[in-house]
Design brief:
Layout: E1 9-16, E2 21-28, E3 33-39, E4 46-47, E5 63-67, H1 77-86, E6 91-92, E7 97-98, E8 103-105, H2 121-130, E9 147-148, E10 158-159, E11 161-169, E12 172-180, E13 185-187, E14 193-195, H3 207-212, H4 219-223, E15 231-236, H5 242-259, E16 260-261, E17 271-277, H6 286-306
Parallel strand pairs: 5-8, 15-17
Antiparallel strand pairs: 1-2, 2-5, 3-17, 4-8, 6-7, 9-10, 11-12, 12-15, 13-14, 13-16
Helix pairs in contact: 1-2, 5-6
Length: 316
Amino acid sequence: MTSFAACGLVVGHATDVAGATGCTVIRGDRGPFRCGASVVGRATGTRELALLEPGHLVDRVDAILLAGGSAYGLDAAAGVMRWMEERGRGFDVRDGVVPIVPAAVLFDLAPFGRFDARPTPAMAYEACDLATADPAEGAVGAGTGATVGKVAGVSGSMKGGVGCGAASAGRVEVRALAVVNALGDVRDAQGRIVAGARAPDGTWLDSAEFLARGGAGDDRFGDLAGRSTTLCVVATNAALDRAALAALARSASAALYRRITPVATPFDGDVIFATAPMADGVEANVAQVEALAVRALETAIERGVRATAPGDILQR
């Protein structure tokens, strides 16, 4: 189990097993944190990403929401805001606070889950309440309805889910969380496929090779457009400003390219968030933090499929 305590964060899941959807909230244990982001995919669903850009007025974030439900899942952010407002946590506007909650969503609607099942504000509120420094992995939260290897249709796909990873050197700590819901295959450190698209005989189809051979011409592939997305968070205890965090999020994308093939397709909405403390961060070389983040995120991506029990595979 990976602890996010060293990075000042806690993680909570809310899960709708029957609807095959859910949400995951990453929030500061005691207060706000700095955040940057990088958009890797080309079919994204997001909220409040613009305020993460360097130079924006608001230099803090109260929580990050990762959710299923495609664009419908963005509504769940209202639950995080309510939880924060009730505790006086948010950007001070004199008469009250405005919680800052960037969000990103993945597609887990039919045929993978139930189309009318979406993460709700009540579920996100619950995830805030349940947040812990040692989050569960597998088919939970935003990873409940996640799948991988969808290039040749639903029948050949496998279950994805939530995975966590850690890397450290001296006083520098990095933690990563990935919700793996990719169009492509997931590979291990040696490049071997560990989860992905399967041929009718049960062997690996090799999604990248399938597409290179013209597999995108298959009618079933068109039906899957936009039904993927891997959402990631890399967190550090290093003292980084928003410009450095934006760079950290971009550099961490190397983990996606190493472990998911293909990645950043027109049908994936991959987003990476990067976080650091508002104060009292550890002095660190940025290049070192970036290298550690790639290592931690690679582990999280692989754990996102390995932590899912065989019984959690969707039969739809």
